[in-house]
Each structure stands twice: as C-alpha cells, then as structure tokens.
Amino acid sequence: MERDLLPRTFLLARKVITFYASLPKSTVAQVLGKQLLRSGTSVGANYREANQGRSRAEFLAKMGDCLKELSETDYWLELLSAEDFGDKSDCEDLLQETRELIAIFTSIIKNTKQNAP
Fold first, then answer.
1. Which of 10, 73, 70 lies closest to 44, judged by CA?
2. What is the CB-side half-sphere exposure of residue 12 using CA atoms within 13 A?
3. Element (H, E) at 31
4. Which stretch of DSSP H or E encloses residue 81?
5. Average pLDDT over residues 49-57
6. If one looks up domain 2-112 in CATH, what number appears?
7. CA atoms of 16 and 45, how far apart (whole Å)
8. What is the DSSP letter of 1?
9. Distance between terminal CA atoms of the chain?
10. If you ran DSSP here, which 8-state letter would residue 23 be given?
11. What whole-number distance in Å separates Cα of residue 61 and Cα of residue 25?
C-alpha cells in the first residue's frame, strides 16, 4: 500500500500546481496560493525521502514532515475556499484528497510506532 503513495503524492502535487495556476492574480490570492503550492508539492518529496530513510526514526521523522505539510495544505485550501478563490469543485476535490492522505499517513505513523521492536 505504501508504494501506492508515491504516484498519489505526485498527483497531489500536480493538482496543486494546476489549482495554483488557476487562481486570480490578486495579491491575496497569490500569497495564499504560494503557501499552498509550497506545502502541497512538498508532501511527495518528503515521502520519497521517508522511503530512503536509513532507520525507523528517520522514516518516522520524514513521515511526520509529510503529515505536517498535508495539514498545512488543508489549512490553505480551507482559507482559499473561504475567500472564494479558485474553482470550488477543484478545491473540494483537493481537500478530500488531502484529508484522505492525512488519515493514511496518520495510520502509517501510528502502526510504525506500535510495531517498533
């Protein structure tokens, strides 16, 4: 299952990029959008690093980074939605995917900690 997250987090990044590109060019929308762009695209990079971890501790630390970035992505999407920036349907789709990934990453972290030798 975890290997399925590589393409899934990559696709999230691509969808975030597309959503950002569609935002209005107002200063507020662009500032919020850049925050989303940073957090939403870093999830996959951090996940790749987690899979290269040399120890359980390193893996957990990077997975924690993924979870942090997903939480931040969720926040920026909520704020953009509340301010009516961007397509509502696209934003809702991104929110759903982000929340599903939060649940998955939370479960992986919890299970990894519980199964520690």
1. 10
2. 32
3. helix 27-51
4. helix 56-82
5. 91
6. 1.20.1440.60
7. 14
8. -
9. 21
10. S
11. 36
Closest to 87 (Cα-Cα) out of 21, 35, 30: 21
* Spatial separation of the C-alpha atoms in residues 11 and 64, rounded to whole Å: 20
Those residues with Cβ within 8 angstroms of residue 36's Cβ, 6 or more apart along the chain or in another chain: 16, 19, 20, 73, 76, 77, 80
SS (H, E, C) 51-80: HCCCCHHHHHHHHHHHHHHHHHHHHHHHHH
pLDDT reading at 8 higher than 90:
yes
User: Which pLDDT does position 2 carry in this prediction?
Assistant: 56
| Helix-, strand-, coil-residue percentages of the chain, each rounded to 5 | 85, 0, 15
Mean pLDDT of 72-96: 97
